[in-house]
Amino acid sequence: RSVYRDISALLAQRVPIRGEAGIGYVLDKGLDMPPLMLTTDEIEAAVLGAQWVINRGDPQLSKAARDLLAKIEASIPERLRPYIDDPAHRVVPAYDRAKDMIDLGAVRGAINGARKMRLNYRDVEGRATDRVIWPILLGYYETTRIICAWCETRKDFRSFRSDRIVSALVLEDRYPERPAVLRVKWRKAMEADWKNRKAEWEAQKACGEARKTAS
Questions:
Q1: Which range among 104-118, 128-142, 189-203 shows the weakest confidence by mean pLDDT?
Q2: Thinking of the domain 104-185, which architecture would CATH place it in?
Q3: Any idea which of 142-151, 178-187, 190-199 has the lowest mean pLDDT?
Q4: Residue 147, class by beta-carbon neighbours within 10 Å (0-12 exposed, 13-18 middle, 19+ buried)?
Q5: Phi and psi (nearest 5°) for 126?
Q6: Which H or E run includes 185?
Q7: Is 204 buried (19+), middle (13-18) or exposed (0-12) by CB count in 10 A?
Q8: What are residue 160's DSSP bridge partners?
Q9: CA distance 118 to 106
Q10: Tens of pLDDT, residues 153-172
Q11: What is the separation, in whole angstroms, between the first and last Cα of the chain?
């Protein structure tokens, strides 16, 4: 029914569609789609974002960013194409970027498919540990990437730096909650943690000021 409603709405807008319900619909070849209308600021924003991904994303995302720029260039008027071919801004390459030890494309696939992962991970002290996680989000910093996940071992949300992961395996098992639901819970947990840290910092600051006053 929703398809038929959409077709009716398009026909009302004089989109040349031929066909009928129960048989099928065909878009007339004579339809001339207008070029993508973007402002120069919007184009520059897209180029700047794509440059960042090209420099700091995994190989699949870097390629996707280049493809995106090519599609935008093919869709905009000729007079605007120099904003893509010869932009007036650049993202500085991250020469000190930590090397990813795993395929982040596989991690993104696990997140989208709500699949568990098994990690062999080394903490900041170099201690090795095996974890089964429910990956829900990839975080991109200037020089590092982190996987935000529910950790079955710790029974809590944890973050894992991609450059400290020795090996990773995407499991066939799916985790029981949708990634979007877990991301909401993760954000609430991060907000609560930040409030606690802020309260501790303010308490320590107040104690320090009280000692200075007393002395």
A1: 189-203
A2: Roll (2.30)
A3: 190-199
A4: buried
A5: 90, 5
A6: helix 179-214
A7: exposed
A8: 147
A9: 12
A10: 999 999 999 999 999 999 99
A11: 78
